[in-house]
Structure formats: structure tokens, C-alpha cells
Amino acid sequence: MSQPVVAAIILAAGGSSRFGEPKPLLRWEDRPLIARAVDTAWAAGLAPVIAVVGAEAERVAPELAGRPAQVLRNYRWAEGMSASLAVGLAALPASVDAAIFLPVDQPLITPALLRGLVARWQATAASIVVPEDAAGRRGTPALFARDFFPELAALSGDVGGRALFARYPDRLTTYRVADPAALIDVDTPEAFARLQARARDSAPQSPLSRARAVLCDMDGVLWRGSQPLPGLHAFFAHLEAEALPYVLVTNNSSRTPAQYLAKLASLGVTCEARHVLNASLAAAEYLANALEPGASVYPIGGDGVYWALEARGFRIASGETPVDAVVVGWDRGLTWEKLATATLCIRGGARFVATNPDRTFPSERGLVPGNGSQIAALEAATGVEAVTVGKPEALLYRQALARMQAAPEHTLVIGDRLDTDILGGLRLGMPTALLLSGVTRREELPQSPIRPDVVFEDLAALVAAWRHT
Ligand SMILES: [Mg+2]
């Protein structure tokens, strides 16, 4: 199973009367709990995201307008939680391999926690993954693999998946959560007030003062076209003064590290090769771990793809013989012949690796097809889903973290795109800083389910704030 499909089922049907209004509508920061739960599941990459509503559904459901969730109504909510499980499970397509059940009233669940459950499930033979704190207390949200769906759907009364924990101890594994507060649910107005106060007080040390290392995007952050952006030199001076290790990471696969170093030098910044990681280098690194040395690879893409594969000792295939892998990066010289060769290689069993998922590229003429569009064509022709290396998938960031031997929770992600830079950071539990000097405009922020920790106009503003932490 290369890319398992994990769904989220948000349980928001209950009719608690203790709050004066339905729990899903309680506000946490700037959103109702139901919207927060959907945003968290979506940011974790879970799909589909299903919200099961019941009590006062006509007030709760509209809060999800415009969000990427399927809203289902459990008319039998008064019978207890099991009816909601059944409603959610019945809506899952056959392609779903596992599902995570999220109670709507645990506001401190993070995308990183949900990713952790999925990773734990993939790394073990267990069919149930349960979060657990350092004291051994088990909680929710729990992950269940498909083989348990029938039994979950058959539960009755006010019980949830916990009913199966004791029944199947040897099919269950636990996942240790970093912050035990993530498992706390809001049962009374007093508990809710306490949790809000705690979130304010433990208020996260500023993401800037927490940073011990930096992952920084380039285009739209350091420069736009050939123009350096404000704060460029102050930024590198700050990294040097604070002795912060950093890697400049980009989904762009077309250039070589030497080309990036030359570009930086032309803007008056001196870096070394270890400071640059792009998606083609990361793809070659990924394959170096997956294939034998000297394996053959059919590449589509620019100089950067060829250079990275050759530097790793792969044989560049012309496509006439069976090959071990196909690597696809953005290729302005793409032809039908290249697509045909890649299709035949993948159909012949070659691994299929995409440097980055960006579907479009912002050209002077407007949005034109990017690498994601090339990948979509090959996926359609082969029925095989590519392994994607670039942001928001985890491989690129993980390799950069490994290079610095840095912990994700102490590594600041700086980027200008919510759906790649920031989302990738959220999924790994990294603090994130969005800069408005590139693609994202401030007006987009309130609508987006992706929430960066801090937002600045540009690097200059970021560095100014950083110096004062
Ligand atoms: Mg960018």
C-alpha cells in the first residue's frame, strides 16, 4: 500500500445541554469548534472529511459552508454515539483504507497528531491506533483500519470505538502524544473555560523564540523574479548572528544547487550547497534509499532533475529497456513521446515519483500547466498514483530536518504559500511563518483552513519581530 487513504469522521451530533448552545458552535479563537475540527482534519491530509451533525443540525451545518467537508445528518442522535459512527461509516467510499474518529470537543487536536496516528498505523501491523499520554491514559481520536468498519457500524447505544479497545488488545497499538492536553475534551462550561485559559497562558512561546533551525522557501520569500525582496540581507545576517542552521527549500525542480548558489551570490548572499534542497535532489535522495545503486531511471524535467539523478549514481535510461523508476519534474519541453515512454515504463513496473504537486505555474501570460498537470496525465494513463516528494508532502521537509538534525517542533517554516509551505509545516508539527511578499494575499487568510502561527508582510518585518523576542 503506497499511499493509504485515511478518512476523518467528525462526531458532532450530541445534544449536550450544559452549554446553552450546541457544543459544535462554541467558539475557540476565531472559529466554532466544528469548523476547527474540519480544518484540522483537512490540514492533516485526511480525505474525505465527514462531519456528522445531529442536535440542532440546522444551526450547526451552515457553519461549514465553503469548507472541504461532507456534512451528514444523524436523525437518531439521541440514541447515542454509535448511530453517528454508523452514519459516517456508511458514507465512506470503497477506496478508504482507514478512518480517524474525531470528537468535535477536543480543540487541541493538531494536524501533526493526526499524521502521527496514520504514521503509527503504517509502521505497525495493528488495525487500531489509540493516542496515549505519558501517564498511559488512552483517549481519542482513534484510528480504525477498514477491517473493523463492520463491527464499528454494528455498535449500539451511547458507545464509540472505545468499546473495541478492550475486546482486541492484540490488534491495537498506541501512539504517544507530545501534549497530553490534546486528549482533553470539553464536558462542562467550566472545563471549557479552563482549557481556554490554559491555551492562552501556556501560550505558546512565540514561534520565533522557539526556533532553533529554519526551513525557508525561496521564490516569493527571498526574491521575486530577479528582484531581491525587502529584508533579504538582514535575514541572513540574523541567521548568522544567532548561529541558526537553515536549509532553503523549494518545490522547483528545474535548477541545480550550483544555479541556486549563483542566484543567491548575484543578490549578495553567500551560501553553501548544504543550504539548498530542491524537490529534484529530494527525489534522488528518496530513490537512493529505495533502489539499488546504479539503478536506471527515466527522467522528465529540467537540468535539476538530470543533475540530481546523475549525482546520486543512477543510470539515465532512454526508456527502451525496463527501468526501475520514472521521476517527473516540470518540463517546458514536454512531448507526447516523453509521456508515452514514461507511461510504458510505469506500466512495466517502474516506481513513479513526482518532484512536486503544483498543478499550475504563474507565468507572465497567467496560470499555465505545472508539474501537477503532467503528473495528472500520467496517473490517468497508468492508473498508478505518484509518490510526491515536494511540499506539502513530508519527504522534502523531512530530508531538510535530517540534514540539520533538527526537531520539527523547534524548526520554523518560512514561506509565501499556504497550500504548500505552511500546510507542509503544519502536518509535521512545525511552527510556521507566512510572508505576504509572494503568492498569498492577506484577504485570503480568514477564509483559509490553513492557519500559519504568524504572518508578516515580508522578511524585513519578520526579522524586526525576531530581534525583539
Ligand atoms: Mg514561494
Describe this structure in words.
This protein is α/β, with parallel strands linked by helices. The chain folds into 3 domains: 6-201, Alpha-Beta Complex (Spore Coat Polysaccharide Biosynthesis Protein SpsA, Chain A), CATH 3.90.550.10; 207-251 and 392-467, HAD superfamily/HAD-like (Rossmann fold), CATH 3.40.50; 280-388, Rossmann fold (3-Layer(aba) Sandwich), CATH 3.40.50.1000. The chain contains 16 helices and 24 strands. The protein has a 7-stranded mixed beta sheet, sandwiched between helices. A 6-stranded parallel beta sheet has the order 14-13-10-22-23-24, with helices on both faces. A 5-stranded parallel beta sheet has the order 16-15-17-18-21, with helices on both faces. α8 runs parallel beside α16 (459-467) and α12 (336-347) packs across α13 (371-382). The longest helix is centred in the first third of the chain and has 13 residues, at 111-123. The radius of gyration is 23 Å and the shape is globular. The protein binds magnesium ion. Magnesium ion (MG) binds next to loops.
